[in-house]
Amino acid sequence: MGEHHGPMKGIKRWLYATNHKDIGAMYLWFSFIMFLTGGALAMIIRAELMYPGLQLVDPNFFNQMTTTHGLIMVFGAVMPGFVGLANLMVPMMIGAPDMALPRLNNWSFWILPFAFSLLIIAIIQSFLGISDAPNFGWTFYAPLSTKYGPASTDFFIFSVHMMGISSIMGAVNVIVTIFNLRAPGMTLMKMPLFVWTWLITAFLLIAVMPVLAGAVTMMLTDRHFGTSFFDAAGGGDPVLFQHVFWFFGHPEVYIMILPAFGIVSAIIPTFARKPLFGYASMVYATASIAFLSFVVWAHHMFTVGLPLAGNLFYMYMTMLIAVPTGVKVFNWVATMWKGSMTFEVPMLFAIAFVILFTIGGFSGLMLAITPVDQQYHDTYFVVAHFHYVLVSGAVFSIIAGVYYWLPKWTGRMYNIGLAKLHFWCSLIFVNLLFFPMHFVGLAGMPRRYSDYSLQFADFNWWISIGGFGFGVSQLILLWILIDICFRKKGEAVSDQVWEGAEGLEWTLPSPAPYHSFTTPPVVK
Ligand code: HEM
Ligand SMILES: [Cu+2]
Predict the structure, then answer these.
(1) Predicted pLDDT at 2
(2) Would you say the CB of residue 242 lies under 6 angstroms from ligand 1?
(3) What's a single GO CC term here (predicted)?
C-alpha cells in the first residue's frame, strides 16, 4: 500500500484519528472510563442506602449523585459503548475500508470528552464543597431544573447540546456508511443484524436528539431570558416539559437497546452453530419497535393527570411493544433450540442477556398497566425495571460484544478463566443488586430518596452488598483489558477465532488490517 497509509505516530494518531478502528477503540475506552466513574457515584448512593437514616451524605448531595450517575451512565457509558462497537464493526461487517465520513467521525468522538468534563468538573466542585452539581434527576424535570437548578445547570445544558451534536454526527455517519459502502452483492436483507439494528438506531438518534436539544434550549431561555415555556406563572406549563422530554426519552431507551439486539443476534448463532432463526422477522420486529417507541412517551406520565382516553391509548400502545419484542426473544430461543451449543464467554453474557432482559420486559409490561402504575410510579420497582433492561440488558450486551470481537481487534485471546470469573460474579451480583428492588418498590419505597422507612432495611442491606459486589467485579474486566491491550498478553488467534462464526469480519486477518477491506469482497 501507499507510503502514507499507516497510522500516524504518537499522540497525533489519536487526536487526528480518522480510522474507524482507532476511533472505535477510543469510544470504547471512553465508555469504560465513564462506566467506572458512574459506577463510583453509584457506590456512594448504595453506601448511603445500606442502612436507614443518614450516615454519609446530605440529601442535596445524594440528589447530585443520583443525577450525575444517571447522566453519565446513559450518555457517557451506554451510548458511546454502542457507538464504539458500530465504528469498529460496521465497516468490517459490510466489507468497507472505513466509515464513509472519517473526519466527521473524529469530531463526533472528540466532542465527548469536553462535554463530559463540564459535568465532571461540577461533580468535583461539589465534592470540594465549592458548588452544587446538577441535582434534579437525569430527567431534569422543570421547574426543578429551571427555577431551582444550581449554577452548574447552565454547563449541564451546554454539555447536553454537545452530546447531541456528537450523536447526530455519529448517526449521519452510520447511515451514510451503510447506504453507500456495502460490498457488491450485499443487499439490505443480507446485512448482519447488528448493521440493521444500528441503521434503525441511527434514524432514532436523528429524530430525537434535536427534541432533547429543544428541551434544554427552552430551559436555558426560561432560566435566563425571561421566557416561561415551563412556568405556569407566565402562561407556560411544566407538563409540557415532560411531554418534550419523554418524546425524546422513550425512543432514547430504545437507542440503548436496539444495538444490543444486534450484538446478541450475532453471538447466539455462532455458539449455537445454527443460522439465526427468522432473520426477516428480526428486521421487521426491530423496525416496529422503533416505530412504536415514538407513540408511547406518555407512559412515563400516567400520574400527571392526562385525560383518561390518553392514558388508555398510551397503555395499549406500550403493551403492543411487547409483541415485536416477544418475536425477538422467541427467535433467539429458537436459534438455540437443538443447536450444538457451547458456552464461551460471549455466549454466557448473551444468554444472560436474553433471560434478564426478558425479566425487564415483563416488569415493563406491569408498569404499562395504567391503573397499577399509580402504585409503582416513582418507586424502586421502576428502578428495578430499567436497571434490568439497561445493566443486564444494554451493558451485558456491550460486554458480550467486546468479548466476542476483542480477539479480532487485537489478534490475541484474552484470559478466559478470568473472563468466566467476571461473568459469574457479574451475574450473581447484578441479580442481588436489582432483584430485591422489585419487592421494596412494590412495598412502596420511593426512588431518589436518601433515607427510607425501617421496614426496607434488610432488603437494602443486601441490595448494597450486590452493588459493591457488582462494582468490584468490573475491575476484573479492567484487568483483562489492560492485560490484552497494553501488556500484550494472550495467545494468537486464527482469522475465524470462533468455530461457528460467520460474516465478513471473520474473513479478515486477526488483528484486522488498518484499512479493513481495501478491495471489496463479493457477497453471493
Ligand atoms: C416491553 C418493553 C418495555 C415496556 C412495556 C416498558 C415500560 C415502561 C414504563 C411504563 C415505564 C414508566 C414507569 C414509571 O415511571 O412509572 C418505564 C420506565 C423506564 N423504562 Fe421501560 N419499558 C420497556 C422496555 C424498556 C427498555 C428496552 C429500556 C431500556 C433499554 C427501558 C428503560 C426504561 C427507563 C430508563 C425507565 C425509567 C425512566 C425514568 O423515569 O427515569 N424500558 N418503562
Ligand atoms: Cu418509555
Answers:
(1) 46
(2) no
(3) respiratory chain complex IV
pLDDT at 6: 76
Q: What cell does 192 get?
A: 448482519
Q: How far is CA 339 from CA 67, 275, 333, 472, in A?
A: 44, 10, 10, 35
Measured distance between the N- and C-terminal CA atoms of the chain, rounded to whole angstroms: 27
Nearest C-alpha neighbor of 187 from the set 521, 524, 504, 505: 524
DSSP 285: H
Report which of 12, 35, 184, 95 is spatially closest to residue 517, judged by C-alpha positions.
95
- pTM to 2 decimal places: 0.96
* Residue 376 Cβ < 6 Å to ligand 1: yes
Q: Which domains does the chain have, with CATH numbers?
A: 14-183 (1.20.210.10)
The three three-digit cell numbers of residue 95, written as one number: 466489507
Report whether 175 contacts 203 (CB < 8 A). Answer: yes
Rounded to the nearest 5°, which phi and psi values hold at 521? -70, 155
Closest by alpha carbon to 503, among 196, 240, 290, 103? 196
Q: Contact at 8 Å (CB) between 379 and 445?
A: yes
Determine contact, residues 5/515, Cβ cutoff 8 Å: yes
CA distance linking residue 272 with residue 93, whole number of Å: 20
Q: Are 227 and 218 in contact (CB under 8 A)?
A: yes
C-alpha 409 to ligand 1 mean position (Å): 34
**Catalytic: 48?**
no
Ligand nearest to the Cα of 441, by number: 1
User: pLDDT digit string (tens) for 53-75?
Assistant: 999 999 999 999 999 999 999 99
- How many CB atoms are located within 10 Å of the residue 280 CB? 8
Q: Which of 32, 24, 35, 33 is nearest to 84 (CA)?
A: 24
Distance CA(24)–CA(27), nearest Å, equals 5
3-class secondary structure, 278: coil
Kind and range of the H or E run holding 404: helix 396-410
SS3 338: coil
* 324 CB within 6 A, ligand 1: no
